[in-house]
C-alpha cells in the first residue's frame, strides 16, 4: 500500500527533511519536506535521487543482507546465523580482553550513524568493556571545529542558525565549497544575495570553486596559510581601529597576548605568505570588520589540517574582536560535513569525549557518566583517535577492531598503514549495509545493518537541530539496526564480563521503535544541566517538528542562536582569545614533490559512492576520476587533457587521467575523494596494492584535534 514517511536526508550536515514515498517494501519516490526548517522543501541533486539509490537493482545486489563469516582471510565469506555471528564476536572479544586488556580492542564508527547508534556503542566500549578506544570518521570531518569552539567559546556548540544567512551583511566563506558540499544551504546564500545586493561575500580557498563564483572578493590563498591570513586581518583591524574594545573588555580574556602575536603578521608578510594582494587583504578585512553583521561559514579547508584547531580558533578570534557574535546574522558557523557528526559529538562518541559534551580528562565528568550508566568507573586513559587507532592496530597493540558504517580502507589517509592495520588485526568485524566496500575484504565477520529508509532514530544538523529519521520500509533480509546490533552484542558480552549484574542495555530489541526511543531518552537524561540540554524534547515533539538544542524541560522551543547575552560556557563566563601560532603545512612542496595535492567532494557524489555510485545520472556531472591541474602546468609538463599521469607522494602512487582546470592554481592539483580501488588503483612505496586518492595523503594531524591533513600532500606528477 502506498504511503508517505517523513525522514531526513542521510548525506550532509545541512540535514534536509525528506518525504519518502513507498509502496510495500519498495521506496518509490522522495521529495523535500516543505515543513522542515533546514530546507523548506528543497533538495539537491543527491537528496532528490535518494529513492533511485534505494530502489536500483545494483543497490540490492550490493546489500549485505545476512551475517557472513570468513574462516580464513582471502577466502569468500559464508553465511552464518546471527546467533553464530554474535557467539564468535563475543568469544573473540572476551578472549582478547582477558589476554591483552580492554585497550586491545577498538571501535571505529561513523558520522552517518544515528545518535542512538552512537550512544550504545559508546556505552558498550567505555561503560562495559572499559576502553576509550572509540573513534569515528567524524575525526576526519569536524574534530578541529570541536577543538576550535572549545578553545575559544568554551563549548562545542555552533552559535548560529541557518536563518543568520538571511540577516548577514557580510558572509566570509573559508575552506568550504558550499555550492557542492552543502548545496541547499548555498541556494539560501544565493537567495540572500538576490534579496540584498549590498550583501558582501568573501570566499577564501586555494581553489577557485563554484562557491568563489558568487563572491564579491575571492582570496586564492596558498594551501595551509589560513592562520597567517586571519592573523593578518586582525593586524589590520587593530591598525584601523576596527576592533570593539568595549566588547573585548566585557566578554573576553587573552586579547593582549594575541595582539603581540598578530603584530608580527604585517600586510607585507601576509601577502607574501598567503600569495594574495595586499589590497585584497585590506578589502576583506574592511568587509568583515565594518559590516553591521558578519557571518563566517567554514568547513574542511579549515578542519582537515595539521593546524586545524588553530585555523578554527583564529577565525573565531576575529568574531570576538569585532563583536560579530551573539546577534542575528553574525558569528562563526562551522558547516558539518556528515549528516550526524554533531549527534556523535553530543553523545561523546569519540576517544576524548564523554556523554553530553563531557570531557574524558575531567574526573568529575567521568564520575557523572559512571553514575548515569550504573558502572563503577569510566576509564581515564585517553582512547586512540582515528589515525592512532589504525597505527596501533598496524603495530599489533589493537588486536580486535569493530568497524561500523564506514570504509577506512578507502577513506583514511595513508592507506598503506591502514591496510597493514586491517591485515595485522587478529579479528575485524565490519558492520555495514553494503557488502561491496573496500573494508569488507578485510572482515572476519560481516554484520548486516539497515540503512536510509529503513532506520529509526535521530540526527543533529549543523545548526544544532535534531530531526527524526524514520523507516519507510521494513528491514530487508536479516539486517538489524546499528544500535540493536551493538546492544545485542553488549547483552551477550556483559554476561561474561559482569555476570549477575543488571543489564547496561535495557532497550527493547523486540520492538525496535520503542528500543530506539529508550536509548534516546537515556541520552536525553545525560544532557540535563549541560550546554546541550534537551530535556524539553521528546520523540513525540520531534515527530511534530525538528528542534534545536538547547531546549530545557519546560521550554517550548530550542535556542536559535547562542551567546546573545555575551555569557560563554567558561569558568568566568568570558570567551577566550586563542593565541595560536601560524605553522606551515606538515609536508611542504619541494623540488622532488613540487605540487600541492588537494582532495575534496564532487557535487553529485557522496563519500565512497556506495550509494550515489549506483545510479548513472549522478555521473552526468563528473563521469570519471581525474587529477585537475592548471593549464599552464599541463603545457610545462607537455601533457594534454586526458593523458594518463602518475601522481606520487612519499607514501604511494596512483595513475589517473589529467584534466586542465581553471579552478586549480599553478603548482597545485585536485583529485576528488570518491573513487575507490575498482576505479583508481595504486600502490604504496613498497608495492602494496592501494585504493583511491588516499594512497597519497598524509596522516600527519593537528596536535589539538588529531584531525589529519587530508587537504594537502606534496606530490610529483609525470606522464604514465
Ligand atoms: Fe541532502 Fe545535503 Fe543535499 Fe540537503 S543539501 S538534500 S542534506 S545532500
Automatic annotation (TrEMBL):
- Residue stretches spanning the membrane: none
At the top level, the lineage of the source is Bacteria
Please indicate if the UniProt record lists Protein transport as a keyword: no
Necessary cofactors: [4Fe-4S] cluster; Mo-bis(molybdopterin guanine dinucleotide)
Choose one Gene Ontology CC annotation of this protein and give it: oxidoreductase complex
Which UniProt keywords are listed?
4Fe-4S, Iron, Iron-sulfur, Metal-binding, Molybdenum, Nitrate assimilation, Oxidoreductase
Residue ranges annotated for the 4Fe-4S Mo/W bis-MGD-type domain, each copy included? 2-58
Q: Which family does it belong to?
A: Belongs to the prokaryotic molybdopterin-containing oxidoreductase family. NasA/NapA/NarB subfamily.
Name assigned to this protein = Molybdopterin-dependent oxidoreductase
Q: What's the source species' lineage?
A: Bacteria, Pseudomonadati, Pseudomonadota, Betaproteobacteria, Burkholderiales
Amino acid at each position: 500500500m502506498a504511503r508517505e514517511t517523513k525522514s531526513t536526508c542521510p548525506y550532509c550536515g545541512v540535514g534536509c527533511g525528506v518525504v519518502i514515498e513507498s509502496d510495500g517494501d519498495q521506496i518509490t519516490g522522495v521529495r523535500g519536506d516543505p515543513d522542515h526548517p533546514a530546507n523548506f522543501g528543497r533538495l539537491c541533486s543527491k537528496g532528490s535521487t535518494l529513492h533511485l539509490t534505494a530502489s536500483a537493482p545494483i543497490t540490492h545486489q550490493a546489500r549485505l543482507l545476512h551475517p557472513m563469516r570468513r574462516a580464513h582471510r582471502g577466502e569468500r565469506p559464508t553465511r552464518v546465523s546471527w546467533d553464530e555471528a554474535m557467539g564468535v564476536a563475543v568469544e573473540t572479544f572476551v578472549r582478547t580482553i582477558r589476554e591483552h586488556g580492554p585497550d586491545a580492542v577498538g571501535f571505529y564508527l561513523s558520522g552517518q550513524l544515528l545518535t542512538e547508534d552512537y550512544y550504545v556503542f559508546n556505552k558498550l566500549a567505555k561503560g562495559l568493556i572499559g576502553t576509550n578506544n572509540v573513534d569515528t570518521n567524524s575525526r576526519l570531518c569536524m574534530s578541529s571545529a570541536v577543538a576550535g569552539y572549545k578553545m575559544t567559546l568554551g563549548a562545542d556548540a555552533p552559535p548560529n542558525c541557518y536563518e543568520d544567512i538571511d540577516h548577514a551583511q557580510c558572509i566570509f566563506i573559508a575552506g568550504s565549497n558550499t555550492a557542492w558540499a552543502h548545496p541547499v544551504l548555498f541556494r539560501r546564500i544565493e537567495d540572500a544575495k538576490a534579496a540584498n545586493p549590498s550583501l558582501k561575500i568573501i570566499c577564501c580557498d586555494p581553489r577557485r570553486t563554484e562557491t568563489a563564483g558568487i563572491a564579491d572578493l575571492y582570496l586564492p590563498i596558498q594551501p595551509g596559510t589560513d592562520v597567517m591570513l586571519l592573523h593578518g586581518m586582525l593586524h589590520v583591524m587593530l591598525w584601523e581601529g576596527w576592533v570593539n574594545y568595549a566588547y573585548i573588555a566585557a566578554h573576553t580574556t587573552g586579547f593582549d597576548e594575541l595582539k603581540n602575536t598578530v603584530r608580527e603578521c604585517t600586510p607585507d608578510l601576509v601577502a607574501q605568505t598567503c600569495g594574495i594582494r595586499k589590497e585584497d587583504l585590506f578589502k576583506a578585512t574592511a568587509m568583515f570588520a565594518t559590516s553591521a553583521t558578519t557571518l563566517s561559514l567554514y568547513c574542511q579547508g579549515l578542519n582537515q589540517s595539521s593546524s586545524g584547531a588553530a585555523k578554527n580558533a583564529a577565525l573565531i578570534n576575529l568574531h570576538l574582536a569585532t563583536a560579530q557574535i551573539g546577534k542575528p546574522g553574525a558569528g562563526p558557523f562551522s558547516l558539518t560535513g556528515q549528516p550526524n557528526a554533531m549527534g556523535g559529538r553530543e553523545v561523546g562518541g569519540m576517544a576524548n569525549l564523554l556523554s553530553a559534551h563531557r570531557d574524558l580528562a575531567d574526573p568529575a565528568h567521568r564520575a557523572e557518566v559512571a553514575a548515569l550508566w550504573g558502572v563503577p568507573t569510566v576509564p581515564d586513559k585517553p582512547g586512540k583517535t582515528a589515525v592512532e587507532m589504525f597505527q596501533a592496530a598496524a603495530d599489533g597493540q589493537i588486536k580486535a577492531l569493530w568497524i561500523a558504517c564506514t570504509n577506512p580502507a578507502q577513506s583514511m589517509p595513508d592507506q598503506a598503514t591502514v591496510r597493514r592495520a586491517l591485515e595485522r588485526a587478529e579479528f575485524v568485524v565490519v558492520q555495514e549495509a553494503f557488502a561491496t566496500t573496500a573494508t569488507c575484504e578485510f572482515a572476519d565477520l560481516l554484520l548486516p545493518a539497515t540503512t536510509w529508509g529503513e532506520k529509526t532514530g535521530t540526527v543533529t544538523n549543523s545548526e544544532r537541530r535534531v530531526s527524526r529519521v524514520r523507516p519507510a520500509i521494513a528491514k530487508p533480509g536479516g539486517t538489524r539496526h546499528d544500535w540493536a546490533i551493538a546492544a545485542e552484542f553488549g547483552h551477550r558480552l556483559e554476561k561474561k564480563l559482569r555476570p549477575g549484574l543488571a543489564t547496561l542495555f535495557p532497550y527493547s530489541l523486540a520492538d525496535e521503535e520503542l528500543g530506539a526511543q529508550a536509548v534516546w531518552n537515556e541520552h536525553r537524561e545525560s544532557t540535563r544541566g549541560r550546554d546541550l540540554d534537551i530535556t524539553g524534547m521528546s520523540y513525540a515533539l520531534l515527530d511534530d517538528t525538528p528542534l534545536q538544542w538547547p531546549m530545557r524541560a519546560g521550554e517550548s522551543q530550542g535556542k536559535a542562536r547562542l551567546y546573545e547575552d555575551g555569557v560563554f560556557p567558561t569558568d568566568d563566563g568570558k570567551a577566550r582569545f586563542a593565541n595560536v601560532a601560524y605553522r606551515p603545512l606538515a609536508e611542504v612542496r619541494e623540488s622532488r614533490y613540487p605540487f600541492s595535492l588537494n582532495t575534496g567532494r564532487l557535487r553529485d557524489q557522496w563519500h565512497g559512492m556506495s550509494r550515489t555510485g549506483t545510479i548513472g545520472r549522478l555521473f552526468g556531472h563528473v563521469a570519471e576520476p581525474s587529477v585537475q591541474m592548471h593549464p599552464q602546468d599541463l603545457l610545462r609538463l607537455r601533457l594534454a587533457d586526458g593523458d594518463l599521469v602518475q601522481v606520487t607522494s612519499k607514501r604511494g602512487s596512483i595513475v589517473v587521467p589529467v584534466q586542465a582546470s581553471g579552478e586549480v592554481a599553478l603548482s597545485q592539483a585536485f583529485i576528488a575523494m570518491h573513487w575507490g580501488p575498482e576505479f583508481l588503483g595504486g600502490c604504496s612505496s613498497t608495492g602494496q596494492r592501494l585504493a583511491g586518492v588516499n594512497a597519497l595523503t598524509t596522516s600527519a594531524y593537528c596536535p589539538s584535534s588529531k584531525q589529519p591533513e587530508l587537504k594537502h600532500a606534496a606530490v610529483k606528477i609525470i606522464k604514465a
